[in-house]
């Protein structure tokens, strides 16, 4: 059964590759978004992850914004793309993943190498132009994945792109639950776990419920990137339902 679902995932990945290679060059951005949304929903269906969406933003969503979210798993990208297709900023390691890496690149993922400040600056400048052009851009400010029930400090560097582009920050919270509404450990993608190992754990678990929560937008007018990063982290923590004392403790430097 697991082998059959692995095979279905592989076929679906190849279908996505063909779409990127043969359809994307000849179609509009709106069509790309529609196809990415449909493909992402199908992938979640194959791996038995049900996706739900809650809007706690309390008003209209800004037409242009910089989207941020906590980071649990490689699933996060597809959960978010199933609702709001985005150009993600992701660590360069993902580019080397079999099939998924190429697919992410062709769907607009922006790869960044850790510790290379010059590359960060170049990507930051590109983000400003993309946001101003109306592209939906998202990144994970924790910089890596974290076990569910925790929220790492947010790195502030890329928040500067929203300030320069004069757009708000749009926080999202993502978590994965079991049938009883408890955080499901199968979603955790941490340590030395490989993509294939994570996929196997998720397929064996079956029936994960992904919950994506949109929180109120945060204005960047006259603000400093560190302050915005802290406000965004508090908003995401609220969306995850994390106690304030847990969030405060995890924000302290090691």
Automatic annotation (TrEMBL):
Pathway: Lipid metabolism; Phospholipid metabolism; CDP-diacylglycerol biosynthesis; CDP-diacylglycerol from sn-glycerol 3-phosphate: step 2/3
Pfam family, one: Acyltransferase
CDD domains noted in UniProt: LPLAT_AGPAT-like
Top-rank EC class of the record's enzyme: transferase
Reaction equation(s) it catalyzes: a 1-acyl-sn-glycero-3-phosphate + an acyl-CoA = a 1,2-diacyl-sn-glycero-3-phosphate + CoA
InterPro entries, A to Z: AGP_acyltrans (IPR004552), Plipid/glycerol_acylTrfase (IPR002123)
EC number: 2.3.1.51
SUPFAM superfamilies: Glycerol-3-phosphate (1)-acyltransferase
Record keywords: Acyltransferase, Lipid biosynthesis, Lipid metabolism, Phospholipid biosynthesis, Phospholipid metabolism, Transferase
One annotated GO biological process: phosphatidic acid biosynthetic process
Domain named Phospholipid/glycerol acyltransferase: residues: 65-177
GO molecular function: 1-acylglycerol-3-phosphate O-acyltransferase activity
GO cellular component terms given for this protein: membrane
Comment on protein domains: The HXXXXD motif is essential for acyltransferase activity and may constitute the binding site for the phosphate moiety of the glycerol-3-phosphate.
Classification via NCBIfam families: AGP_acyltrn (TIGR00530)
Family designation: Belongs to the 1-acyl-sn-glycerol-3-phosphate acyltransferase family.
Identification of the protein by name: 1-acyl-sn-glycerol-3-phosphate acyltransferase
Species the sequence originates in: Undibacterium terreum
